[in-house]
Design brief:
Blueprint lengths: L13 E4 L8 E4 L2 E6 L2 E6 L3 E9 L1 E5 L5 E3 L6 E9 L5 E9 L8 E8 L16 E4 L4 E10 L10 E10 L10 E2 L9 E3 L5 E10 L2 E11 L4 E12 L2 E11 L3 E3 L5 E2 L2 E2 L9 E6 L4 E12 L3 E10 L1
Parallel strand pairs: 1-5, 5-15, 7-16
Antiparallel strand pairs: 2-5, 3-4, 6-8, 8-12, 9-11, 9-13, 10-12, 13-16, 14-15, 17-18, 18-25, 19-24, 20-25, 21-22, 21-25, 23-24
């Protein structure tokens, strides 16, 4: 007796979405069937089924600074740092949008510009390009700087904050709707689907305004020998810090500076223009003399005393 065995396999070319497998990858598979018939073993192989991995669009934006960026009114080039990660499975290009969030803040943010960290050193350099888009392969990330000018606001109070939202939007998908499909728009013409992020991600960083004030007090005393001791007290109050603190003290024409009497916080300084923070300057043509002091950056609650001596002519 003869038997006829008919076995039919149905395998078609199909598509699949798979995170972790690069878009456009062709996955091939076949099945094998074995059976016995009248004590004979038979093995049958199916045709090869092929699946093409479609492109999954996912992106993640993260603010990288550990705390609000401390700023002062009128400052330029104040930088917030973000990271943009392509967490999809194929190359994508993203539009980068930086937007001020707190329009009711006591200080405004101006000239918001976006730069890419070209050498991954977490620092804004002159070589870093200004861009409105970034292209990333799958599982690659890019550090992004948002650079703002801090607006002037006479009524702003110390401690007030403002925020910048950085959004990355896929140029292939990016509907914001998980599962939305775009036919034939992916790598090598594969279909595209917006993943968990919907092809859009955003995060916000913040600036914190700290206002410092500098108080300058001057005192003089005279001894029985006609020597005048001049004391200049510099005190920083408020919050934050002040930069480029320079003091110019004019010496009265009725007096003569006592050489090498210049002190800063009790420590002696030279009269010459050298590496220390102070000097004595004589303007012969104008018949004037000055004490010049460069204190640089001073933190809150800093106090410094400058002293020098004069003789009455």
């Amino acid at each position: 007796m003869k038997y006829i065995v008919i076995i039919i396999f149905f395998f078609n070319l199909s598509t699949a979405f798979a995170k972790g497998v690069r878009a456009g990858t062709v996955i091939q598979n076949s099945a094998m069937l074995s059976f016995s018939l009248e004590e004979e073993e038979f093995i049958i192989k199916s045709n090869v089924a092929k699946s093409v991995v479609d492109q999954l669009i996912d992106v993640k934006v993260s603010w990288m600074d550990t705390r609000p960026m401390v700023v002062s009114l009128g400052e330029r080039q104040r930088v917030l740092t973000y990271k943009v990660l392509n967490s999809g499975n194929g190359r994508d290009r993203y539009t980068l949008l930086a937007q001020e969030l707190n329009y009711k803040s006591e200080f405004s943010l101006e000239e918001k510009r976006v730069y890419l960290d070209a050498n991954d050193n977490y620092r804004l350099d002159a070589s870093d390009p200004q861009r409105k888009t970034v292209t990333l392969d799958e599982d690659r990330e890019q550090l992004v700087f948002v650079v703002s000018k801090i607006g002037d606001a006479l009524t702003a109070s110390s401690g007030s904050q403002n925020f910048v939202n950085l959004k990355a939007l896929s140029r292939i998908g990016g509907s914001g709707e998980k599962g939305k499909i775009y036919i034939g728009r992916g790598i090598d013409g594969v279909d595209v689907v917006d993943g968990f992020s919907g092809g859009v991600s955003e995060d916000e960083g913040s600036y914190k305004l700290l206002i410092a004030n500098v108080i300058l007090n001057k005192d003089v005393s005279i001894d029985n020998d006609g020597i005048i001791t001049v004391s200049v007290l510099v005190t920083v109050g408020g919050e934050g810090s002040v930069k480029d603190v320079n003091i110019v003290d004019e010496i009265p024409n009725e007096t003569i500076y006592v050489k090498n009497s210049l002190l800063l916080d009790g420590g002696a300084l030279t009269d010459q223009d050298d590496s220390d923070q102070g000097r004595y300057k004589r303007k012969y043509k104008e018949r004037k003399a000055q004490i010049l002091m460069s204190l640089g950056e001073l933190d809150i609650s800093s106090t410094h005393t400058i002293t020098y001596s004069l003789k009455i002519r």
